[in-house]
Amino acid sequence: MNKINNGPVALVHFDAHLDTWDTYFGAPYTHGTPFRRAREENLFLDNASMHVGIRGPLYSRDDLKNDASFGFKIIHCDEFQTEGIDKIVQRIKKRVGDNPLYLSIDIDVLDPAYAPGTGTPEIAGMTTREIVNVIRGLSGMNLISADVVEVSPAYDHAEVTSLAAATIIYELTNLFAKKKL
Ligand SMILES: [Mn+2]
Predict the structure, then answer these.
(1) How far is the CA of 108 from the centre of ligand 1 (A)?
(2) 73 close to 67: Cβ distance less than 8 angstroms
(3) I need a labelling partner for 171 at 20 to 30 A (CA). Which of 60, 94, 129, 151 fits?
(4) Domains, the chain, ranges and CATH?
(5) What's the pTM?
């Protein structure tokens, strides 16, 4: 029987952007601020949470410093080039351990070549092959929740982005299915 988790979770957040800004164009509740607000509610484990695929432009000089002070670590998108998928998977597993894991995937972590249908695309992103294999590598972790966000069909071409998002969600359901009970 699964134990129900009521406490803070390890966030593994795939995104080109940190999403830990205090405000975005003056507003506290936006798509650039969710993890700052959630962290203020003590929803994350400080010693087990991280961003993966970061490469977006910074909003202020203090973005990286603030983000680190909230307890998040960062795997920069360029590290996929230098380290490869297996090493990145090991780093995520080491950081999270057996803690309850919440995977949040912003589709803009992918390169716009694979996911053009999104509001804030950033070049030099992950490939669909990389993200699918990273997700498969996380099999066996204590996954309790996952989401895929920021798909914007109005900007999509030939349903490329929707295909990527749907396949990522399929891979996530496989992780839940393979979870040890
Ligand atoms: Mn983003």
Answers:
(1) 5
(2) no
(3) 94
(4) 10-97+112-178 (3.40.800.10)
(5) 0.94
